Structures are given as structure tokens and as C-alpha cells.
Amino acid sequence: MAILGNIIKGVIGITDTLSAEPNHKVNQEKVLKKLLETAQQTQFGEHYNFNSILKSDNLSKSFAEKVPYFDYHQMNEKWWHKLHKGETDVTWPNIPSYFALSSGTTGKKSKRIPVTNEMIEAIRSSGIKQVLSLNNFDLPADFFEKEIMMLGSSTDLQEKNNHLEGEISGISASNIPFWFKGYYKPGEEIAQIDDWDERVEHIAKNAKNWDIGALSGIPAWIELMMQKVIEYHNLNNIHEIWPNLQVYTSGGVAFGPYEKSFKALLGKPVTVIDTYLASEGYIATQTRPETEAMQLNTENGIYFEFVPMHPDYIKEDGSLKNNAPSLTLKEVELDKDYILVISTVSGAWRYLIGDTIKFTNIEKAEIKITGRTKFFLNTVGSQLSVNKMDDAIKHLEEKFSTQITEYTICAKRFEDDEFYHSWYLGTKLNADEKEIANALDKFLKDANKNYKVARNKALHGVKVKIIPVEKFHEWNDKNKKKGGQVKMARVMKEDKFAKWEEFVN
């Protein structure tokens, strides 16, 4: 009998029952006020006169009027670079304890995003909220005695100028509570291995010694890890070595495109729970099984704003124009795409995180990630978002009975001086590429009126290339972006796409 599991499940149940459904709109008002009060005497707070904003009758409106939007490069060039010169109280009191390194999906050079002690505490609080919400998923008591495999980046953080640097998943894992360390796998020693392939090799060797009940990490890298374990032990599926695996917490990207290939590695169904941990903070987590949407963490150190997704508001480099209107949680509508803007306890202010979302339930503050602002393909007026591309990939998987785990696309001008959408699909599918291109084109015409209009004007057609999915992993490896928080670029500009095609060929 799972005595400890019953105790833990009981405590979670009682705590969750006593926790009232949060008022997310009120939470956001409190968070904004706290952020402004705490940072009013910083260089940033004095420059934008937080003191006068705090005297306003409408904090959110005054804040939006007086503080401009920032993407990473603007924030770094104007403010965060001072932190690396030893200045204090720049955009947040004192100096950050950590910097999260994030190259994301663009470029080799890592972004260095401040992570303060307050952010570490906010991430921990949001993690506790996620654990408490497990009570809603009707998991058996013995699940709470099993180990959890957290496959992120290395926890071997690098010391530099009185702070530590690493990816956010490595920073978070290095700050796990002492009581959780007994459940945490692959354990501190293996987690510190910097080379991703070497770390996975150690995981495969030790897999039989662990009783894994849950997996956590970005889908592409969790899949590769499971494939390695299966191959190393000559298994048919991952449940042959981890029979008690019951939960997978995804994060950072939409799980949909990976669902079919992920399930092919399992021996039985698992509960999939989506989470949204970015380098800038823990944004949202799925709290109930009735929906795949995630609830914004409205009470833990992040103030959210939402800019309607429209080409007129976005510059060519993916940043926001200053005239782009922002909405608060009180003003958003269901099922409309918004560009996510955040202000945080790490001193990010009206910061363009790069993701687009839509609300599925406003009262519960539940969202779905719909894409990336830089992956919004509008070169020839097609207005194609990542969620529409993901839907098209799912359609191809069903139509051709295959798995397509990775893809990338570019609006490319070919020799005939005409624009085509050039797709590379990572799959084992053995089919005519023109037939696939026609199916893709037809689906997008039916699903997106702007795409259909573009196809009758500047967009001449669709071209498809089938390549092994391993090519995508090798590309990431070549660009030193394997494992951790890394996501494959779904949309590339022509100059980067030329390098991609040279690499593939």
C-alpha cells in the first residue's frame, strides 16, 4: 500500500480544497502596483517616473502611456548592459543573482536575461501551484511516491562577475527545494554534465535503476531521450523500463505537432500537462484535465499585457511599433491572437517575450500558445501563424498516415522571380513531394482566407522537401543549440534559410 503517497495526495487535496479560485484581474492589479513600488527608485523607475504613475487613478493606463515597449535587444542596449559593467539598481533593486542564457530559436549568440532572487521565488511558487493542481487529475496515490525526470539544460552554472549563468531550466533545477531532491532525476551529478549527448548517455545507462512516474521537458528532447533509453536497453517502448510512468509535463512549445511521435514511444497512455516556463519567468501552467489550455500565473511576479496580433503593429524585425495598443486582462476577448507583453520581478518592463497566445477562458485566465511573432509568415500577405502551420502538419499526418515531428518554412523567391512557400518536413514518409505540397496548399487555402488571397496574387505556390528528422537535430547541434530550452525555428528569413539549405544538401 502506498502509505506515503496517500499522505502526500491527502495533503495536496486538502491544500487545494482550501485554496479559493483566484481573482486573476485583482491579482494583476496588485502585481503591477507591487512592481512599480519596488522599482520606483531604480534607474529605470526614476527615468520613467514610476512615482507619478503610482499616483494615477488608473495604474495600468498610466503605465502603458509612460513606458514604451521593449524587446530583448532594446532592453539590453538601453538598460541591462549596465549590469555587466557593475552598476546596481538598474531596472530592479540591487543586482541579479543569475543570468538566464537563451538563444531561443534565433542566432548563435545567447541572450543574457536577468534572474533575480524574487524571480526564483516566483518560479518556485508557481511550481507549487502546479503540484497542487495535480489533485485535479485524479492520479493514484502511488504516483506521489515515484521519481520525476526533469530533462532541462545543465545545472553546472558558470560563475561570472558575482553572478551565475545558465539556461533557465538549469537555474530552476539548481534551486529545487531540499525535500524534492529525493524524487528528482537524473540527479545532481548527471544534471551537471554540460554536453547533452553525454548526459543522455548517462541517463540511458542508469534508467533501469529509477522508478520514473513523470517526465518534464521540451517534447523534441524528451523524445530523443526516450529513444536513446529504448535503443540502449533493446525495448519496444519506454513503459517496459518505466512501467509507472503516468505523467508528462510539456513546456515551451505546443505539444500538438509532437503528439503522434511521442505516443509511439509509449506502451500505454499518459496524462499530458502543459506548462509554460520561459527564460523570463514561469508564465502559465495547465491546472485541470478538462482543457489543454494553461492558466496564467497572475499572482507570482509577472504583470501581463496583450497586444492584438496584427501586421500593422509589428516591425519587420518582430518588435512592436510604439502605436500598438495594449490590453489588460480586463479587456481581452476569447479566441483572438494576442502578442504577449510582460513586466517582471527580474526588471523586464513592457517586454516583448516573442510569443502569441489566445484566451480560451478569461475568468480562469486560461490561454494557449498560438505561435511566435517572428514566425508570423506575412512576406507576401499570407498572414500565416504557427498554429495554422501546426494544424496543416496534423492534417498531413492524418492524410498520409505518418509522423512529422519537425518542420521549417520560408517565403522564398525562386529563379522564376516568383515567391513560393518552401517547406522542409522531418519525416520518414515515402510519398511524392508534389502530392504533399498540393495537400498542404489546399488545406491552408481552406483554413486561412488571407492565405487564399495571397495564393491568387504574390504567392505563386508551395514546394516541399522531405528530409530525415535527424537533420533538424544536427542543425541545432551545429549551432550549439541542442537540448535544454532550444526550439527549432518554424519560420526562417531567406538569408538564414540559404544556410539551412546549404547544410541540408
CATH architecture identity of the largest domain: 3-Layer(aba) Sandwich
CATH class of the largest domain: Alpha Beta
Helix amount: 25-40%
Secondary-structure content class: alpha/beta
Alpha carbon gap, first and last residue = 57 Å
InterPro entries: GH3, GH3_C, GH3_M
Organism: Polaribacter marinivivus
Domain GH3 C-terminal: 390-495
Protein name: GH3 auxin-responsive promoter family protein
Describe, in plain words, how this protein is organized in 3D:
By secondary structure, the protein is of the alpha/beta class. It folds into two domains: 1-371, 3-Layer(aba) Sandwich (Rossmann fold); 377-504, GMP Synthetase, Chain A, domain 3 (2-Layer Sandwich). It is built from 17 helices and 18 strands. It has helices at residues 3-18, 24-39, 43-47, 50-54, 59-66, 72-78, 117-133, 168-173, 188-191, 196-206, 219-232, 259-263, 386-400, 433-447, 449-455, 470-478, 494-504; strands at 98-102, 111-115, 147-150, 158-160, 163-166, 184-185, 212-216, 247-251, 271-278, 281-285, 294-296, 302-308, 338-344, 351-361, 366-372, 406-413, 419-426, 459-467. Strands 6-3-7-8-9-10-11-15-14-13-12 form an eleven-stranded mixed beta sheet. Strand 1 (98-102) and strand 2 form a beta hairpin. Helix 10 crosses helix 11, helix 13 crosses helix 14 (433-447) and helix 14 (433-447) packs across helix 15. It is globular. The N and C termini lie far apart (57 Å). Residues 1-12 have low confidence and may be disordered.
